[in-house]
Fold these 2 entries.
Entry 1:
Amino acid sequence: SEGCATCASALAGGDNCDNPIMITTSGRRRTVVSTCGARNDVSSGCNGRNGPDIVVALRVARRGQVAARFTVPDGVSVNFGYDLAARSCRDEATLRQCNSNNTATTQGFDLTLDAGTYYLYVATSAAATIVVDTTLP
């Protein structure tokens, strides 16, 4: 309905810091999210990306290894920025780190993180479904 041929049904929300998509389940989990209908209104700070973006929050219950992979369809690229420490969601790019400056259909990380909520500012080059694979302690 939004001219978004590469979108599948996804979790609602995530368009900005007012309604981030929360991932809280320990262990491995696959979540489908989407930038379809999302605006380009959150600065990811990553390689000057201009495209729809969403905010995904990872709630880490205890210190441990955290992994996340974001995969989009062929022909679309994905990138994300994040804050180095658990803190409240912020719409500005101050101190925001970029995961990678490379254009790719998959971006991710594998880090040891303290307990807390970490916000990821995810942008795609075009409106698309994003498959998010996470592992939380």
Entry 2:
Amino acid sequence: KEDFERDRHEQFIVELRRTGEPIGTIYSYNFLPTDGYAFVTTFLGENFCGRGYGAEAFALFLYHLFTTYGLYKVYADIYSYNDDSLKAMQGAGFSEEGRFKGQRLFDGVRHDVVRYAIFRDNLPKIRLFLGLCGFGA
């Protein structure tokens, strides 16, 4: 409840489709409809990383945000030590829009925060990834 009072826009539990088992969460924040953007963060349980669940949840959420709110772009901030997420963002067509040098202190070491953006123009690619060809906006 306190998170929503501060900055959360929408938040969903990520579940396994076949069992309904909760495996993580995804949420949008810093939603600014005037300028047409929001930020998204995804967390998955350690046992569920690297299996495509995060990519599917992220794509579904992007589709929802772009088609429901007509956003221009969506941002995601990734820690530079998170190689899997960095590769996923680059492979999915996100563009690097900023790098905050040494912004994250983790285990006594400073790491960059890399800001990526994906634009509404990528909706056809998102729909294709989700198998939604011919549907939606």
